[in-house]
Design goal:
By secondary structure, the protein is α+β, with helices and mostly antiparallel strands. The protein has 15 helices and 10 strands. A hairpin with a 2-residue loop joins strand 5 and strand 6. It binds fe (ii) ion. The site of fe (ii) ion has 5 residues, from loops.
Length: about 400
């Protein structure tokens, strides 16, 4: 019986079948090695355990495994996750320490560091074409470099930035059809890389090229959309005498809160856009009311309040905008005690996005410096939020998380 591809190997009576990995699962004296924490499915593993005990479980050979893995990665959501997963699988299969992907960018390669959460961009370090990666890219062939001490082309800039010591490398160019995208490098194998490793990496690179390319393009498109959205909201913030970064700040704080609440990658992306656009409806409020220096009349205040409904209306006309994203804009002035606007909804009726953005919005409004006044100290602003939460205005858990973030210096 062939083992499923998500099992890297197993060990029984000290004998290893397949390969080892960092993710282990013990069952009846057998240690299973898996590629990813996500693969720990106890029910399935306990069933497979029986076959292993009977001595009929066969781990897939590397050549069989790679197409399965490439197919699985083809369904990965975004570039960051794709790169992380490639690293996870390929380092186990080639029994190496790390994997890096470099993208060609005009006259150099960019080494990507995948960190920074949902709103964080993928950082990159430029790598010259005279480097090992550059050599692989320009030669368009898979190459092994087992002695970096003698290798002048080894570019130490990435090692320095990533606090890593590269000892040996196997690298393969990445193509999407005729388009040259970059290079995949696998680093540090005990005893050095062999010809077989080069062949496997080349096979994988051929299978994953198009996927990497489409993820890269999608990521660029998302960034562009985010930048356009931010440009619009910055204009709105400026007009409203907020600091020009208000919407951006609200988005950042909201995403940090959402992460601690365990929202998925997709939900965090939606929350980020919803929070960035929470005040987009102010575009429909005239200057004479929005910028009126004195006290507003009852009618004028009603018009101000309508920015929530106008915002939700603008968003609901956009394709691919989800219900949660619309609710974030609609409900960011609702309060849990029912004293908010536009509808006076109460705790259980207000969406999670609405409750998160409400807290982030008030905190940034209190701490941000306006044209006519200096921003409050963080601690003072938080005390106000705590007091209001005791009075039932805000979601207690969300305000607690904000407190943690303030203590950690994250906001
Ligand atoms: Fe607002």
């Amino acid at each position: 019986m062939k083992a499923p591809y998500w099992i890297a190997g197993y060990e029984q009576f000290g004998e290893l079948h397949g390969r080892k990995s960092k993710v282990k699962y013990e069952c009846d004296g057998i240690t299973f090695y898996l590629f990813s924490e996500d693969d720990i499915d106890k029910a399935k593993l306990n069933k497979i355990c029986r076959y292993a005990k009977e001595g009929v479980l066969e781990i897939l050979e590397d050549e069989e495994l790679i197409p399965h893995i490439a197919a699985r990665l083809n369904s990965a959501l975004n570039l960051k996750n794709l790169l992380k997963n490639i690293e996870k699988y390929i380092s186990v299969i080639l029994d190496a320490e790390a994997v890096s992907i470099l993208f060609f960018s005009g006259d150099h390669l960019e080494f990507f560091v995948t960190e920074g959460g949902a709103s964080g961009r993928i950082e990159s370090i430029p790598v010259p074409m005279e480097s090992i990666a550059g050599t692989i890219f320009l030669n368009k062939k898979t190459m092994i470099f087992n002695d970096l001490n003698k290798e002048k082309r080894h570019f130490k800039g990435v090692d320095k930035a990533a606090k890593f010591v590269t000892k040996n490398i196997v690298g393969s160019p990445i193509f999407a059809g005729d388009i040259e995208i970059g290079v995949i490098e696998v680093l540090n194998k005990e005893g050095g890389f062999k010809e077989k490793d080069a062949k496997l990496l080349e096979l994988f690179s051929n299978l994953i090229g198009r996927k990497i390319y489409s993820s890269l393009k999608l990521d660029e498109m998302k960034r562009l959309i985010k930048d356009i959205v931010t440009a619009i909201t910055t204009a709105i913030d400026k007009r409203d005498n907020y600091t020009h970064t208000h919407s951006k700040n609200v988005a950042r704080i909201s995403v940090l809160i959402g992460e601690r609440l365990g929202l998925s990658e997709k939900e965090l992306e939606e929350l980020e856009i919803s929070a960035t656009l929470h005040d987009v409806g102010k575009i429909g409020i005239s200057d004479s009311i929005l910028l009126k220096p004195g006290k507003l009349t009852k009618e004028e205040y009603e018009i101000i309040k309508s920015h929530t409904i106008i915002g939700a209306d603008i968003l609901s006309n956009l394709k691919h905008v989800t219900k949660n994203m619309i609710l974030g804009a609609l409900e960011h002035h609702e309060r849990c005690d029912g004293n908010g606007y536009p509808y006076g909804k109460k705790n259980g009726e207000i969406s999670l996005f609405g409750r998160i953005i409400a807290v982030a919005d008030v905190y940034d409004a209190l701490t941000g410096t306006r044209v006519y006044r200096k921003g409050m100290e963080k601690s003072t602003a938080y005390e106000i939020l705590l007091r209001d939460t005791k009075e039932g205005k805000f979601d207690r858990r969300i305000v607690e998380i904000l407190g943690e973030l303030i203590n950690e210096g994250a906001v």
